Amino acid sequence: MVTWKVKSSTSCFLAYRNDRNETQKLNCSERMTWKYSPDSNPSLRIYPVNLNDEGNYTCEIVSSEGNYFFYFSLTVIVPPVLTLTSDKNGAAVCQAAAGKPAAQISWIPASNHSIEEEVHHLNGTVTRASYIGWVNSTHPTVTCLVTHPAMNQTLSLDLSYDPPWLHYLLIGLPTGVAVISGAGVMLCLIFRCRGKSFDK
C-alpha cells in the first residue's frame, strides 16, 4: 500500500492498494495525480504547480518487508516579470514584479545612489523596484542586473536624449538675439536724434 499525505494550504490524502488495485483520493486537487502506475512507481505528479501547493509531503509505503516513510518539503519559486523604463523625471526604473522570493536588483556600473521600493502581495509574491538618476553623459546606457533563484537576467536602456527645453532654447535663441539687437539699434537711433535736437 502506498499513501501520500499532503499538508499545504489544504490537507490531501492519496492512496493505492495493490492487493485490490484500488485508489483513494480525498480532498486532493485534480492537478495532483500519480506520475506513473502506482503499483510500479508511486511518484506524485503536480501539474501545473501553483503557490497553494507549497507545504510538506509524506509518502508511506507498506509492504511485506516493512513500513517506509519519506518526507519532502515543497517550495514553489515564481520567476518575476522584468521591466526597465524611465520615468518623467528621467530616472531609470528597473522592476521585478510578482516574484517569489523577492529578486535582487543591481546596476551596471554600480551605484550607491539607487532607491528601492518593495511591495508584498497577498499570495506571497513580492514586487521590487529600483530607481536611479542617470546623469553621466559619457555612459548614456544604463543596465540593471536582476538575480533570482529562477533566473539571472540583464536589461539595458539608452537614456541619451536632448531635454525638450534645450530644443526650445536653441530654436528661440536666434530670434531673441535679433529682437535684442533691433531694440538696441532703435534705442541708438533715438538717442542720436535727441542728441541732434539738443545741439540745435
Automatic annotation (TrEMBL):
Claim: Transport is one of the keywords in the record: no
One GO-annotated biological process of the protein: regulation of neuroinflammatory response
Transmembrane feature ranges: 165-191
GO cellular component: external side of plasma membrane
Residues in Ig-like domain copies: 1-75
Subcellular location: Membrane
InterPro entries in the cross-refs: CD200R, CD80_C2-set, Ig-like_dom, Ig-like_dom_sf, Ig-like_fold, Ig_V-set
Coiled-coil ranges per UniProt: none
Keyword tags: Disulfide bond, Glycoprotein, Membrane, Receptor, Transmembrane, Transmembrane helix
UniProt-listed SUPFAM superfamilies: Immunoglobulin
GO molecular function, one term: signaling receptor activity
Membrane topology: Single-pass membrane protein
Entry keyword annotation includes Transmembrane: yes
PROSITE patterns, alphabetized: IG_LIKE (PS50835)
Family: Belongs to the CD200R family.
Full protein name: MO2R1 protein
